Amino acid sequence: MSVLDVLQKGLTAAQAMGLMQLLLSFAIAQQSLEHLARGDRMIYVPRLLLCVAMGLGFGGAWPVWGLWLVSLAMLWRYQGPYNGGSDKMTMLILSCLGLAHLAPTPFWQEMALSYLAVQLVLSYFVSGWVKVVNPEWQRGEALRDVFRFSAYPVSEGLRDLADRPRFLFVMGWAVILFELAFPLSLLDPVALKLALLCAAGFHFSNACFFGLNRFFWIWLCAYPALIWFQDRIFS
After folding, report:
1. 75 to each of 4, 24, 82, 88, 216, how far by Cα in Å?
2. What pLDDT band is residue 3 in, cutting at 50, 70 and 90?
3. Cα separation, 12 vs 124, whole angstroms
């Protein structure tokens, strides 16, 4: 399966699941190695081994559900998703993948993947809606305050962007309009791929500016489900 085939023909459910598992194994393994470097082995050694098994396609649904159980244990240990949205998306993808593996018929497998695809679309649209009704985002002040006051910027030099209100106003509204319009990309397969490319660039910029690198990898893991969904429902 080449990139050109994906662009022209979309994905089957099995291909989407295989790609998600491969991407997810890389993303979770990367996180596990970060923790192992600090000597935390009780959870992260099993987690890393399950990632290897899932990435290599061993064990069918077992590595997926194993990672789900480990993620559940992490929620208890850290008293919630300590990485916020990225941990929630990880659990969502693992849950939908696990249910798709256990589905008794192709219909229920498709329902599991469709649920993930719809949640991915809503993650962008709802984020845009929350921003557009917020007066600070409307005036372009939200990004200014992030760069000026928060601990997010990965470099102190980036705080100078707070002194460029016009630039932040334009960028803020560009993000809002993109997120609100994202569901429309489902109407055309090429538009969807371009929208996902822009979304990936958005997450990558957040990783560079704010150090939110886990959002970049985890959201990419769910993209195959949406590519499959668009081809299945709208083509």
Report:
1. 39, 18, 8, 10, 21
2. very low
3. 24
Residue 177 CA to residue 14 CA, distance in Å, equals 33
- Helices and strands (H and E) in the chain: how many: 11, 0
Sequence-distant (6+) residues with CB within 8 A of 208 are 154
Angle between helices 13-36 and 62-77 (to 10 degrees): 40
Instruction: Give the whole-angstrom CA distance, residue 115 versus residue 96.
Output: 8
pLDDT tens digits, 144-191: 877 777 666 667 777 777 788 888 889 899 999 999 999 999 999 999
Residue type (1 letter), 94: L
Between helix 85-102 and helix 13-36 the angle, nearest 10°, is 140
For 192, the 3-state DSSP assignment is helix
Q: Which residue, 221, 225, 203, is CA-closest to 54?
A: 221
Geometric angle at alpha carbon 186, from 181 and 188, rounded to 5°: 110
